[in-house]
C-alpha cells in the first residue's frame, strides 16, 4: 500500500516537473521569436537585367487601391538595373515615392515609415504621425473613442496633454485645454459635433494642424462628468526635412518636387552569390541565390514578444522567410532608363494615414529559390519548442504506463 502511494506521488511530481519545463520552454520560444521576412518577387540579376519593384510585387512598398492600373497606381517604386552580374552602377538604382492626397491634408511614405507632408510646394517636410485612431493608436484594441472625465489629464505624445477642464450644467458645452510641457498652448469651448483644432507655423508653413479631435458627446451626472472624443489625430511638431544630397546608405536624394521625392545610388552596389546585403539602408535588403545570378529584395518585420515589440535589428538570428508577392518578375531589358516616371500628381485620394470618413462629421473636417545553409540557417519560430514539449509529454506517458 505504501509503495502504491509512493509511486503515485512520484508520478505526480514527475508530471508537475514536465509541465513546468514545458511552460518555460514555450515562454522562451515566444520571447526569442525571429523577425518575419517579407519578400519581393525574385528575379534575374545577371548582366543587363532589371527589376521593377512596387506595391504590387513587393508589399513593403505602398500602392493605392483606388488608382486604376497600370503600375502608376503604386505610390512607391524601386527600380534596379544590373550592368553586370550582381552589380548596379551609379544611378542604376532608383527609389521614388509620391504623396497621397487626403480630404484636407497630404501623406507620404518614405523609407518604410508613414508621414504627413506639410509643405504644399515641396514634398520634403515630413511630420511623423503620432496618434491616428483607427490605424496607429487607440485607447483599447478595436476602440476608436477616448472617454475623459472632467479634470482628467490625457498624456499625448511629445510632451502634449489634453484636459477637459469643465462641462456645463446641460452637458452641451465642453472646455478643452491642450498643454505642452505643462503650459497651456490652446483652449476652446466646443459643442458636441465640433472639432478641436490646434494649428502652428512650422518651417515657414502656416496653419499646420498638429492636433485635432472631434467632440462626440458630453454627459454631466451626479457622480461624474465625462466627454467622449473621436477622430483623434496628432502629428509631430518636429518634422523631418529631406534635402537634396541627403544620403541613405548607398542612395542619395537627387530630386524633390511638390508631390515626389527620388533617390538614386551614388555608389556602385555589388552583390555576391549566396549573400545577404543591405540595399536601401537597413530598410530594404537583398539576398542572392547560391547557384546562380538570381535574387530578391526583402524587408524584416519584428515579431511581437512579451513586454513589447522586439526590433528586427536586436536579434542575432536570421529571419523567417515569408514570400509575399504574386506577380511575374521582369528581366533582361535592353537599356536602363534614365529616370523613373512620376505619377504626375498626388497618387490617390486614399491616403496612407487617412482616417475613415464619418457620416456624422461636419464639412470642415480637418481631419523561389530559397534553400538553407550553414551560414544562413532558417526555421519556423516555435517549431523546435513544440517538438520539445511533445517529447516531454511522450516521456510522461511512458513513465505513467510503467
CATH class of the largest domain: Mainly Beta
Q: What proportion of the residues form beta strands (DSSP E)?
A: 35-45%
The number of helices is: 2
Morphology call: flat
Distance between the termini: 17 Å
Task: Give Rg in angstroms.
Answer: 27 Å
What is the fold-level CATH name, i.e. the topology of the largest domain? Immunoglobulin-like
User: What are the segments in which pLDDT stays under 50 over at least 5 consecutive residues?
Assistant: 306-344, 347-383
Largest sheet: 14 strands, antiparallel
Report helical residue fraction. Answer: 10-25%
Q: What class do helices, strands and sheet pairing give?
A: mainly beta
Question: How many strand units?
Answer: 28
Mean pLDDT: 76
SSE arrangement, N to C: HEEEEEEEEEEEEEEEEEEEEEEEEEEEEH
CATH architecture tag of the largest domain: Sandwich
Count of spatially separate domains: 3
Can you walk me through this structure?
The protein has helices at 2-31, 383-401; strands at 36-39, 43-44, 49-54, 76-82, 87-88, 93-101, 106-110, 113-117, 125-132, 146-149, 154-155, 160-167, 174-180, 183-190, 195-202, 205-220, 225-235, 240-241, 247-248, 251-256, 260-265, 269-270, 276-280, 284-288, 294-301, 304-305, 308-309, 320-323. With 402 residues, it is mainly beta. The chain folds into 3 domains: 2-31 and 381-401; 36-124 and 242-323, Immunoglobulin-like, CATH 2.60.40.4190; 130-240, Sandwich (Tick-borne Encephalitis virus Glycoprotein, domain 1), CATH 2.60.98.40. Strands 3, 4, 6, 7, 8, 9, 10, 15, 16, 17, 18, 19, 20 and 21 form a 14-stranded antiparallel beta sheet that branches. Strands 1, 2, 23, 24, 25 and 28 form a 6-stranded mixed beta sheet that branches. The chain has a 4-stranded antiparallel beta sheet with strand order 11-12-13-14, with no helix packed on it. A hairpin with a 3-residue loop joins strand 20 (251-256) and strand 21. The longest helix has 30 residues, at 2-31. It starts with a helix and ends with a helix. The relative contact order is 0.22.
